[in-house]
Amino acid sequence: MSATFLGMPGNFPENSAKAVQDSQLRFNLRKATHTIRGKRAGVVGELPDWQELRAAGKAIKDHTLRNLDRYLLQLEEAVTGAGGTVHWARDAAEANRIVTDLVKATGETEVVKVKSMATQEIELNQALAEHGITAYETDLAELIVQLGDDFPSHILVPAIHRNRSEIREIFLDRMPDAPRDLTDDPPALTEAARLHLRERFLRSKVAISGANFMVAETGTLVVLESEGNGRMCLSLPETLISVVGIEKLLPSWRDLEVFLQLLPRSSTGERMNPYTSMWTGSVEGQDFHLVLLDNGRTDVLADEVGRQALRCIRCSACLNVCPVYERAGGHAYGSVYPGPIGAILTPQLRGMSSELDASLPFASSLCGACYEVCPVAIDIPEVLVDLRAKAPHAAAERAGMKVAGWILNDHNRLARAQRAATRVRGFVPKRLPGPLSAWTDTRDVPEIPEESFRDWWERNERA
Amino acid sequence: MSARDEILARIGRAVAGAEDVEIPRGYRAGRQAEGLVELFAERVDDYRAIVHVLPASEVPAKIDESVAGRRMIVPDGFDRTGGWNDLGTADGVITSCAVAIAETGTIVLDHGPGQGTRAQTLVPDYHLCVVRADQIVAGVPEAVARLDPARPLTWISGPSATSDIELNRVEGVHGPRTLEVIIST
Predict the structure, then answer these.
(1) Residue A139 near residue A115 (C-beta atoms within 8 A)
(2) Domains along the sequence of chain B with CATH
(3) Coarse DSSP helix, strand, coil percentages of chain A, rounded to the nearest 5 percent
(4) Where is A225: in which H helix or E strand?
(5) Residues 6 or more apart from A280 whose CB is under 8 A from it?
(6) Exposed, middle or buried by CB within 10 Å (0-12, 13-18, 19+), for B79?
(7) Contact between chains at A141 and B164 (C-beta distance less than 8 A)
(8) pLDDT-derived band at A434, boundaries 50, 70, 90
């Protein structure tokens, strides 16, 4: 069972300071993020209308969020009409309870899972385990994380921090049916995972998934994937339970024409991912349950600046271009949502009461590369700055800012302060003492000029 | 208050007074393009699938050649006699499709006549798909417009693959490891 993120101690600066000492991790991340960056740029460059698709994607999501209540009701009606059952969950505990009860009702003690961020967020596997139900992850990277009793570190490729030889070690240690002569060749590792999961797919009676999109108009759910584990879970078991965040909605069938272009190209850097499954209600006799999850999303929706984070389609393009993520890695963020999007989503979903969550809005250089690649144009730097203002600050910092605000608010006060500073300029040290040294450890104290610009201007205007 | 009512009420409060937005749809859609067969064949080949472009009259002979020695599932509604019935021991499946997308090299199955069930097109290791030239559309918007959302849909772009190990693409995980496409012109 993979470990849990909630209640993780520490903060981002401490976590990342440790992570950058790990040269293997930095090598793995650099290699992986640069590969995917190049692939994404290539396939995005192929489309002459990328910016038009991006503008449409942004507007469709904003329109959906504005009318979310209406579209959720429409979705519920369509799914129910097609033979599915819709459940609503205010928070993680309620969602876990609903899913646990549904699994118990089938009498099964094992379920197969399609990779899903929502079920990671609510820590469903742990909740099921408490009731004697074992959840088997079937995505290759999720399997690597689960077998290694590890944390996911990337939205798309949760085991991005592991290289081939580390994966070989995990398989040999933890996968009883792995061949003893297993090499670290990726096709050999992939074949071992295929054989390991094959029987389980064919005999499992219950599957749990998330969804990339839900269409209100038709009640259709959409899952994009690569390996075929998704198709196995979605179509073979007798019961399918999908746990989906309420923001994953699209109003109309036609809207898929935008997102099925934006997502694969931004995410795996392919023209199209190998497999996409779409289903509406109960298909081929399957028992279908949809659990609609809030878990903090309506709080995010209430924030005028922060609500744009709900446009996110979990492509992970922002992680792959982020200079901070590339060096610090995903674990430093202490959340299933790492990287730039995690730095704005986690503090909004969980609040900023823990030291870790309050440190996340500062886990950025505000370079803006994330905004540029975001397929739904989430202005991540804007939200970061807004969250920084809302984050708790030390009393001394608040007092200092108050004084600065008082001075800057009045030009006469500012002029007097500048003249005072000019008189003591010879005595200001290059490195500040005490807690202020945290600032000068990585920055220079600005040079105080002999004369302020205001005074210079005054003198020259008069002359 | 039920969870449903509470979530809906929270949403109502959260978005009260927020402005709605118009959706600009300036992207390409409704295209009638030339050269779709060639583009589709090239893009399918990019995924390391096997592709043939043949006149309709030569397709049956090509199918015979491709499936020789394989226990093939032939779904109801596919114009071919014989076939293997046991999913667990089948080597492959042969299907038609609902629509194909040139720009992305994608085949879409709606699991109607000739296209098999979802399991039939997934469990066997080899998938042979026959695409008629008039089923190929330019891009994703043109395909979405042709599809029926009430049907289960499977979009297939090349063989099963993963990039989970160092982001290197490896073909062949849980879905069919070999995808062969015959484009009938």
Answers:
(1) yes
(2) 31-184 (3.40.50.10420)
(3) 55, 10, 35
(4) strand A220-225
(5) A78, A79, A82, A218, A219, A220, A221, B149, B150, B151, B152
(6) exposed
(7) yes
(8) confident
Residue type, A377: A
A201 contact residues in B (CB cutoff 8 A) = 174
Instruction: Give the tens place of pLDDT for each residue, A284-328.
Output: 999 999 999 999 999 999 999 999 999 999 999 999 999 999 999
Task: Give the pLDDT mean for B7-15.
Answer: 98
- The whole-number pLDDT of residue B32 equals 87
> Which chain B residue has its CA at the smallest distance from A161's CA?
B166
User: End-to-end alpha-carbon separation of chain B, Å?
Assistant: 61
Cβ-defined contact of A229 to B6 (cutoff 8 Å): no
The pLDDT confidence band at residue A430, using thresholds 50, 70 and 90, is: confident
Task: Output the furthest CA–CA distance in chain A (Å, rounded).
Answer: 93
Strand pairing class (B161-162; B170-171): antiparallel
CA nearest B164: which of A175, A234, A267? A267
Sign of CA dihedral B148, B154, B156, B162: positive
Beta strand B178-184 with B50-54: parallel, antiparallel or unpaired? Answer: parallel
Interface A–B counts its CB contacts (< 8 A) at: 228
B39-89 confidence digits (pLDDT tens): 999 999 999 999 999 999 999 999 999 999 999 999 999 999 889 999 999
Give the type of residue at A216: A
CATH superfamily for domain A44-298: NagB/RpiA/CoA transferase-like (3.40.50.10420)
Per CB-CB distance under 8 Å, the chain A contacts of B160 are: 226-228, 274-275
Mean pLDDT of A182-196: 93
**Residue A281, helix vs strand vs coil:** coil
B173, A215: Cβ pair inside 8 Å?
A: no
Amino acid at site B158: G
Domains of chain A, by residue range, sit at 44-298, 395-462
pTM as predicted:
0.93
Best interface-test mutation with B: which of A142, A257, A262, A301 has the largest number of B CBs within 10 A? A257
Give the tens place of pLDDT for each residue, B104-155: 999 999 999 999 999 999 999 999 999 999 999 999 999 999 999 999 999 9
Residues near A42 by beta carbon (within 8 Å), at least 6 away in sequence = A269
Three-state SS for A322? Answer: coil
Q: How far is Cα of residue A106 from the mean position of the Cα atoms in its chain?
A: 32
Q: What is the mean pLDDT of chain A?
A: 94
Q: How many CA atoms lie within 13 A of A131 on its CB side?
A: 21
Contact residues, chain B, for A221 at CB < 8 Å = none
Which token pair is A310? 């709900």
